Amino acid sequence: MHLNYLALVVPGFLMMVGIEYLAAKKQNKAYFSYDDSILNISVGIAERLLNLFVVGIFYQVFDYIHRNYALLDIPENVYTWIILFMLVDLVWYWYHRFGHEVNLFWSAHIVHHQSEEFNFTVSARITVFQYFIRTGFWCVLPLVGFPASMLAIMLLIHGAYAFFLHTRMVGKLGILEHIIVTPSHHRVHHASNEQYLDKNYGDMLIIWDKLFGTYAEEKEEPVYGLTKPLESKSFLWQHFHFTMELFTAVKQTRGIWNKVKLLFSKPEHVPGHIRAALEKTFLQPKKQVKFTINLRGYVTTQLVISLAALFCVILFEHYLTIPFMIVSTLFILITLINCGAILEQRSYIFYLEFIRMILLSVASYVYLENLLVPAILGICVVYTTLYFTSMQKRYYRLVYGIANP
After folding, report:
1. Residue 158 CB neighbour total at 10 angstroms
2. Other beta carbons less than 10 A from residue 12's beta carbon
3. Would the pLDDT of 403 be above 60?
């Protein structure tokens, strides 16, 4: 069978998170919070899922540029691998720095910095939109003459290394602090303390930050998250709130040149009152949610289902049709949206559940030769439609403990 063994990243990730959680618990360190971890992993599932549709395109772009426009014919040997390592790290530094200092790029990167905790789950907070921006930066390397295969391998190495930086369990590493990026350096980068803002952009080597004046040593305990924390656990709001803020600010700015300048200026140039206005328009009032056993159990179950589905989709990627991939993606994305909505005890979750049930019914009818499962799901859809209000109240009582949230 032609399986995609990159699917093993999913259980590998969960294993490392579990080890870190148990180690922190043993030391009585409160490094994890339930809702924060759920949100972090939800963002990561969406990124891995959507990345299946575009990662091949990125590779083809690198390969096309190399075959048609490469300035040099660079061979693969020890020296060129070392040079590529240095160049990838340098490009990564500038991509990362622009991701913080340019509004258009920050709208994609901000999701990575929303977590108010700092552990391995935070490494999953990456969006597919970041990959489109990164690709534009990486294109300079095949243009110079590095083959797409070399670049792809080096990017995988850099991505894997970055995962291990997101932890509070590792202290300072002595002399290595002067050479490589360590968890201590990256804790500074994720901090919202004023003296830590816009520091330590490097991915594997800290020398670039020291060279370009963006280095800061970890001296006091970092406070994690955005300087203005989000007022919502909504999956969609996390992804698009700053895009909406930026679009609103551009719309309110007079003159084409001033609009363009705002897109490429720093995030602090987006007026702070815009987010408050958008929150008032698009978000329901914040609720004090009691995390009951039922609520936690249900959300955890949804996340486990999403992770299992993601694992299967990646593993059997080469055997799945595009329509099935699309239906699976929609089902998982709705599940992730639902997880955030349940954590906020929103009333519209039942409608999302209904949509998921319909998707399951259609998918099972199309792809299963046995009609038993589609028939059962179809009966559930019909029954729910006929007794919608009654089923809705029972559902809310089961999940929230109340009939009308």
Report:
1. 15
2. 11
3. no
- Whole-angstrom Cα distance, residue 81 to residue 382? 60
As a whole number, the mean pLDDT across the chain is 90
What mean pLDDT do residues 9-28 have?
95
CB 108 within 8 A of CB 133: yes
Counted residue by residue, the chain has a size of 405
Contact 89, 158 (CB under 8 A): yes
**399 touches 294 (CB < 8 A):** yes
What does the pLDDT read at residue 399? 78
Mean per-residue pLDDT, 256-265: 94
Q: Is the dihedral of CA 290, 122, 149, 147 positive or negative?
A: positive
**Secondary-structure breakdown of the chain: helix, strand, coil percentages, each rounded to the nearest 5:** 70, 0, 30
Three-state SS string across 242-258, please?
HHHHHHHHHHHCCCHHH
Q: Quote the CA–CA distance of 60 and 75 in Å, as a whole number.
A: 19
Q: How many CB atoms lie within 10 A of CB 341?
A: 23
Q: Tell me which of 288 and 102 has the higher pLDDT.
A: 102
Domain boundaries, the chain: 5-212, 235-282, 293-400
Cβ–Cβ < 8 Å for 94, 10: no
Instruction: Report the alpha-carbon distance of residue 196 to residue 188 in Å, rounded.
Output: 6
Whole-angstrom distance, CA of residue 209 vs CA of residue 218: 14
Please list the residues that pair with 205 across neighbouring strands.
180
Closest listed residue to residue 119, CA positions, set 182, 180, 173, 187: 187
DSSP 224: B
**Residue 191 bridge partners (DSSP):** 224
